[in-house]
Backbone:
């Protein structure tokens, strides 16, 4: 099957979505500047511990509020002295007693869950219609998690298409690929809703990767692998890998949190969680090293693909059965952009 490819990283990005802008640990009483969906965002905590997200640009002049100062729960611009409350309303101007009409900055709804700070940068009235995915393995007892963050010069859709196709893993990082991926994979079972994609398949028994067998203490063991993966939204892709071996079931969860910086750049929080060897610092170090290297390779591959799109534009593609989930993700994103009145034009990747 062949097609002319819609852009892998469209200039437009969906805004009606909860995006993870930071970890909970990163947001404190200091002013934290982040960038998402082509706009500057300021994050900080109130004295009561709540998270505030404001437009990071003074209403008076082009100056970032993050370069100012936090006073109680108000932010003072470091250039002109305008003061804003946690709702974005200007409450004080140093040069006159009355605040100018319309002096405010955008304030964005926030949620804090599973050790992450989420913000809604789209139409405010739609935030309550969308849910933040539940990722309990990131914080619940019985799991060990390693992870990292990366700024990637590639569009969010390129990343999701990569996550949707695990058959690429043996070529990107053969040393960590499970033996189950060495042969032609079993057929995918794909369930699609209006806004989500779920895929699953069961691999026949095969030898466990050496690192996993060592952590489980089951040398030369074989196990049948059950894979389930979920496109929750443009912000979240998760993978579940459960290996049933002679001594039980070993579960792993891969969490990829993608926040578009703009149409051609993304911020990635990646997490790898496991329910075995959970109190083993050496296992943590080994997992972080292995999968940190893997995500660096993914980054390099996606940046190369984005560079090709930027230089040559989209072109004809030949699709295979393993692409079915990625193609469904494209359709969902196209629909989201249409609902928001944005275009998913084929020429948006052209320089």
Residues:
């Amino acid at each position: 099957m062949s097609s002319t490819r819609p852009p892998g990283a469209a200039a437009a990005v969906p805004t009606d979505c909860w995006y993870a802008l930071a970890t909970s640990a990163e947001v404190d009483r200091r002013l934290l500047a982040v960038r998402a969906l082509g706009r500057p965002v300021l994050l900080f905590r109130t004295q009561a511990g709540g998270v505030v997200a404001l437009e990071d640009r003074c209403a008076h002049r082009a100056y970032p509020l993050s370069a100012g100062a936090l006073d109680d729960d108000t932010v003072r611009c470091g250039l002109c002295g305008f003061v804003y409350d946690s709702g974005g309303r200007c409450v004080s101007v140093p040069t006159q007693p009355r605040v100018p009409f319309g002096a405010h900055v955008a304030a964005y709804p926030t949620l804090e869950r599973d050790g992450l700070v989420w913000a809604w940068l789209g139409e405010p009235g739609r935030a309550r219609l969308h849910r933040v995915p539940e990722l309990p393995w990131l914080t619940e007892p019985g799991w060990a998690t390693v992870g990292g963050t990366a700024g990637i010069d590639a569009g969010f859709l390129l990343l999701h298409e990569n996550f949707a196709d695990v058959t690429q893993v043996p070529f990107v990082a053969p040393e960590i690929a499970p033996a189950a991926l060495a042969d032609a994979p079993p057929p995918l079972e794909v369930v699609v809703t209006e806004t989500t994609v779920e895929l699953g398949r069961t691999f026949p028994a095969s030898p466990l990767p050496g690192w996993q067998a060592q952590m489980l203490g089951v040398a030369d063991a074989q196990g049948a692998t059950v894979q389930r993966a979920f496109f929750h939204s443009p912000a979240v892709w998760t993978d579940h890998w459960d290996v049933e071996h002679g001594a039980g079931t070993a579960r792993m969860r891969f969490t990829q949190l993608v926040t578009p910086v703009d149409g051609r750049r993304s911020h990635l929080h990646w997490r790898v969680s496991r329910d075995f060897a959970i109190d083993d610092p050496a296992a943590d170090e080994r997992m972080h090293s292995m999968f940190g290297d893997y995500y660096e390779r993914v980054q390099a591959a996606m940046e190369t693909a984005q560079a090709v799109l930027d230089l040559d534009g989209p072109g004809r593609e030949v699709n295979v059965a393993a692409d079915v989930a990625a193609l469904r993700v494209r359709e969902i994103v196209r629909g989201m952009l249409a609902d928001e009145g944005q275009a998913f034009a084929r020429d948006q990747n052209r320089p």
Summary: Residues 143 and 275 are 5 Å apart (CA to CA). The chain is about 20% helix and 35% strand.
